[in-house]
Amino acid sequence: MRLAQKKDLPSILDIYNQGIQDHIATLEEDVKSLEYMRQWFEDRAVRHAVVVAELPSAQIAGWASLNPFSQRLAYAGVADLSIYIRRDLRGHGIGSVLLTHLEDIARNYNFHKIVLMTFPFNQQGQGLYRKLGYRCVGIFKNQGKLDGRFIDVMAMEKLL
Ligand SMILES: CC(C)(COP(=O)(O)OP(=O)(O)OC[C@H]1O[C@@H](n2cnc3c(N)ncnc32)[C@H](O)[C@@H]1OP(=O)(O)O)[C@@H](O)C(=O)NCCC(=O)NCCS
Fold it and tell me: Cα–Cα distance between 127 and 35 in angstroms, integer?
C-alpha cells in the first residue's frame, strides 16, 4: 500500500472504468479518459490522498481516495471515500487492507470522519464497510438514475 503517483494514473483509470461499467459502484455511466483522471489527480489538496495497492508484479490491484466532502470550513474534518479494486482481484482482502491504510492516512491529516455513498445492493461494498465498522446513516430514496431507472443511495459513515 502506498501513495499514488502520476505513473499509476493509467491503472487507476482502468480500474475506475471497470467499476463504472459494472454498474454497482457509482452513478457515473460514461467511462473516463486519462485526461479526466490527470485533472482529478492534479486538482487535489495533499490531504485528499489517493492510495494504491501494488502487487509484487508492480501491477496496481486497486485504489482508494479521500475526497472533499464540502467546501465549508466546518466540515474540514470530514472526507468522502472512493474505493475500487480490479475486477479479477475483488474478494481477496485487498479492499480491507487498502481502506485500513487510507483510514490511518486520514487520521494523520486530521480527518475525524469518513463518509461514503453506496448502493444498498452492492454486497461487496456493504461487506467491506460493515466489516471495518462503518454504519448506515440512512437511505436516500430515488437519489439518482442508473440505466434510466431511479436508484436508492445509502449514506454510511465511520468516526475515526
Ligand atoms: C467493494 C470493494 C472495494 C471491496 O474490496 P474487496 O477487496 O473486494 O473486499 P475484501 O475482499 O477486502 O472483502 C471485505 C469484506 O467484504 C465481504 N465480502 C467480500 N466479498 C463479498 C461478496 N461477494 N458478497 C458479500 N460480502 C462480501 C466480506 O465480509 C469481506 O471480509 P472477509 O473476507 O474478511 O469476511 C471491491 O469489491 C470493489 O472494487 N467493488 C467494485 C467497486 C465498488 O463497489 N466500490 C465501492 C463503491 S461504494
Answer: 32
How far is residue 137's CA from residue 46's CA, in Å, rounded to a whole number?
Answer: 28
Residue 63: give the domain boundaries.
Answer: 2-159
Number of structural domains the chain divides into: 1
Pairing assessment for the beta strands 135-146 and 50-54 based on DSSP bridges: unpaired
The SS3 of residue 50 is strand
The DSSP secondary-structure symbol of 88 reads: G
pTM of the model: 0.96
Pocket test for ligand 1, best of 124, 132, 153, 157 (most atoms within 8 A of CB): 124
pLDDT tens-digit map of 21-37: 999 899 999 999 999 99
